[in-house]
Amino acid sequence: MSKMTGLEQSQYHPLVGVPMATLKPKQVRKNIHLTLWEKLYVFEILRGLFVTGKHFFINLVGFVLPPAGKKRKVFTVYYPEEKVTLPAAYRGRPVLVAGANGAEKCVACGLCEKMCPAKAISIVGGERAGGERYPVSYTLDMARCVYCGYCEEVCPKEAIVMSSEYQGLAQRDRAILRYSKDQLLRSEESVKGRLDYIRRIYSKCSY
Amino acid sequence: MQLLIFNAFCVGAVVSALLMVTTKRPVRAAMSLVATMSFLAGLYVLLDAHLIAVLQLIVYAGAIMVLFLFVIMLLNVEEKEGKLAGKTMLLQAFATVVVGLVMVTMVGLFKANGSLGAAGDASDAFGTTKAVGQMLFTEYLLPFEIASLLLLAAIVGAVILAKRRIDDSGTE
Amino acid sequence: MVADLIESIAKIVFVFSMNVGFFAPVLGWVERKQSALMQDRIGANRADILGFTAIGLFHSLADALKVLAKEDFIPAGANKFFHTVAPFICLVPAISTFAVVPFGGRYELFGHQVNLVIADLDVGILFVFALASLATYGVVLAGWSSRSNWSLLGGLRASAQMLSYEVAMGLTIIGVIMVFGSLRLTEIGALQENFFHWGIFLQPLGFVLFFTCAIAENKRVPFDIPEAESELVAGYFTEYSGLKFVMFWMAEFLEIVTISGIVTTLFFGAWHLPFVTDQMLLSWLQFAGANGAAFLAMLVNVATFFAKVIFFIWLQMSIRWTLPRFRYDQIMRLCWKMLLPLALVNILITGLVVLVL
Predict the structure, then answer these.
(1) Is the ipTM above a cut-off of 0.90?
(2) Inter-chain contact C39–A51, Cβ cutoff 8 Å?
(3) Is this structure's pTM higher than 0.80?
(4) Is the residue at A4 inside a domain?
(5) Domain definitions of chain B by residue range
């Protein structure tokens, strides 16, 4: 999956990463000419009321007194107990990706710091014994982050990606939201879906 | 009991009317006028003129004063600085006294004339919708129609004024 | 004399507890639950007492507790007096309008005439209009006194909208008054004993127009531009919190009840069961004795009236959760260019028919 897919073999739209099959030319009715019946309005309202009323009564029976085996399906998710599986395109909290050795892939080039529109990232770079650069400290202020995903897009090393994490971001103290390197580090497997996704998307655009 | 309520309403009407004239804040003045109208409506109720009382509330308090408030809010009229000059005050006081005297004289004359009914004179039908309607469409038909013509002229005038402004700005 | 006093107090207590004690909190629950059902959701069911949720009814209780504990906030620069008074001006007409709506007919109980209406005014329906027009002040003052642009815009929109729709509503009602020949709501109700004399058959256009205007007067979707959440946060009550906020909320719900009551009285036979005259009802209930029959008939009529009211509450809620919001210019065009001419046409036709018959 690490293979960079080119334009020619893709079944995806080159820019937005949406399956081609689902893309249709957008239909917008610009000049809406209502018929006389529609202009009378009252009957159209009655039609709308009939639709919603139908749902109301079907659900009233389905929820309250369901006939055996015919309990109405609910389309909503009971949030704290149930959670939706988020798509790969979901931009949650940015996290740092750890390499195979368990250390971060980041080389402290500072591109993300430069790119960040909210100035949420601050990096202090350093050098290891072999001359390899690494971030001595990598601070991401989640109180400022706007979840734009530029850091992920600009990173040459795939070292920072938008994860699907979204919890724990409501705090009473802003200091808690200043995440350090250790708190940001995630293993490569845990963000594999997102990595695949950004390879597919960002490879389309030649910078 | 009824007299007590009547007097209370009278005092309320006069006080709120005074507030309306003396206050310098436009919204407060408008609301005082609304209070005056409501007190007057209360007085009408006590005088057995229910229809007039309700119409007073609907037309004056409910429609006209809301328009006043609307304009005040739309223009965001601010409180004006400065005090009333001594001369204006004197003039106002003089006008008040003259108008009051004229009113008192009028009431006195009517009473002497005998055309003013005494208290408790009103029959049961007095002030009901039916009685007022009958009076309006038989005895006072001409004034009623003239008033409606006046209103029609006002409506036409308003429409013409509004129409011209749209044409000038050229937006429509 | 004493019987009159007891009767009045009983009626006032009944209507007040029915409106403020039953309808206001329960409608909060109905609004949540009905919208959920109409949108294939489950709706409010989280608030529980010992794990017992009572299909979400405890949410009203939780709301009440929350509201009592909230800070009563007045924004800086706001006009304190009007900011405090506005919710009361809104709520008082909403509560007191029901005084003229009859919820039953006349009954002879133990030699005492019982007339099931708090105030049997000669001007009945006009009293409703007078109070409705006073309710505008609550909204306008709330918008103006908050010193917030959102509130001010909401207040401005509300004043223009309510004023316009009052005119259309007043003209609509004239058709009904011409047909029944009375402003007294008890009389209008009593005249609809025959099923085919119900207002809806005599004034079908009048009903549609009146219902539209009434919803607009109550500022609910599709006419809710004064509070328009997506544009004005909450419109005229943006800057309110705690109990004062709930006053606006309660005023809205009580107006729903009042509108339903008036629509029932004017157009849907008031307290009468279809095809059942008062005489028939009394003769069926004769087994309980004269007084018992009157009492049972009273219960049946009151139950009928409130069943109709509940149906119209349901209808208003359905409309609220079905239609999208109008634009401001559309609301004004609808009022002045469609409803008002239609109301005039309605008056003309009604007048001709009344004259001919």
Answers:
(1) no
(2) no
(3) no
(4) no
(5) 1-79, 128-172
